[in-house]
Amino acid sequence: MTAPNQPPATPDPDRPEDADQAALFDALATEHGTIYGYGIVSAHVMPEQNELVSQTLLEHRGRREAAIAMLTERSVKVPLPAAGYQLPMAVTKSTEAAKLAIRMENDCAVAWRAVMEQANSEQDRAFALTGLTQCAVTAARWRQVLGAWPVIEAFPGGNE
Amino acid sequence: MLAVPSHDPSPDPGYLPALSRRRVLLGGGRGLLALALVGTAAAACGSSGQPEPDPLEAELSAARADSELAAAAAKASPPEMAPALIEVSAVRTRHATALIEELSRAAGKPTPTPGAETTSATATAQPTPPAPPPTLQDVVIALRRSGENAAKLAPTLSGYRAGLLGSIAAACTTTWMVGLQPVGGPR
Q1: Which of A12, B41, B97, B136 has a CA that sits 20 to 30 A from residue A5's CA?
Q2: Is the ipTM beyond the 0.90 threshold?
Q3: Does residue B100 belong to any structural domain of this protein?
Q4: Which whole number is the average pLDDT over A96-120?
Q5: Whether A69 contacts chain B with CB within 8 A
């Protein structure tokens, strides 16, 4: 079973006990961080990637809004975006920006696969699958931008 | 005559929501056992009396077929697309391996040696030698279909199986949308 997303250094006291809700909570927190990170990516990538950045950002924002609605409907407190995030790597060049994007898409894929495994309804799993698939497709596009090989990952969000 | 659940998905939403998550949680193992018994009983009501085939069997066949198709296409493709097709073949083989493991685990049997399985699969695929080699487009179509089928099945599964099929669906979709498209193609 895929481990839920890496818990932050100081665990959020609002993180729910239920595994299905906790997975959704973690996925939302990951989306918050990713949306922040894409600001950095956007600042450093080549103009040719602007469309990829804006399209991807729209997808992440859409999922964030949907996840907020899902948790709110279940009377679960939603995680708030942090005031700032520490980047996992220094980003000063366009290639580093692409690497950060791949890293964030992989983190999101892991988070949405965890939702797929923990969710109790077909509807939630279908939503998580869309997230997982979009993150996998975007990660592959960034690998193509970098000229990285292989472009496709066999198990996005998983460790088989 | 009772409907066979696997051929008609509608009975599922009928009885599942009646069993609330809270009740399953409160019941703990008993709740899960009850669900398992419902599954067994429903399967036993099938007209043939045979146990329902594991839905992952079809996914395994698709993974093997895609792997062979991509490998055959790689041999006949322009050199610039061959590495991508070989990679697709390898990815689908890894999917097949993971599915065999999960199927064996579910059946309570040790993992069979993949070698024997692969040989029999190739043997049955043999009797059409004069057919023209598959094209890149054939592989794109096959991967798109496999991605769609896995995406339909994944949300109906639960736990690890839902995650595994979700990753397989995502990989198939990524393959035809990105991996098999020429670099710099339409986004």
Answers
A1: B97
A2: yes
A3: yes
A4: 98
A5: no
A154 contact residues in B (CB cutoff 8 A): 90-91, 94-95, 167, 171
Q: Is the pLDDT of residue A121 over 70?
A: yes
In-domain check, residue B74: yes
Between residues 85 and 144 of chain B, which touch chain A (CB distance below 8 Å)? 87-88, 90-91, 94-95, 98
pLDDT tens, B91-130?
A: 999 999 999 999 999 988 776 655 544 444 445 555 666 6
How many structural domains comprise chain A? 1
Contact between chains at A144 and B91 (C-beta distance less than 8 A) = no
- Chain A neighbors of B21, CB-CB under 8 A: 120
**Residues of A (128-147) whose Cβ lies below 8 Å from B:** 128-129, 132-133, 135-137, 139-141, 144
Would you say residue B68 lies in a domain? Answer: yes
Q: Is residue A70 part of a domain?
A: yes
Q: Do A157 and B156 touch (CB under 8 A)?
A: no
Residue B94, Cβ density class (10 Å: 0-12 exposed, 13-18 middle, ≥19 buried)? middle
pTM of the entire structure?
0.79
- In a domain? residue B186: no
* B150 pLDDT higher than 90: yes
Mean pLDDT, to the nearest integer, of A70-86? 95
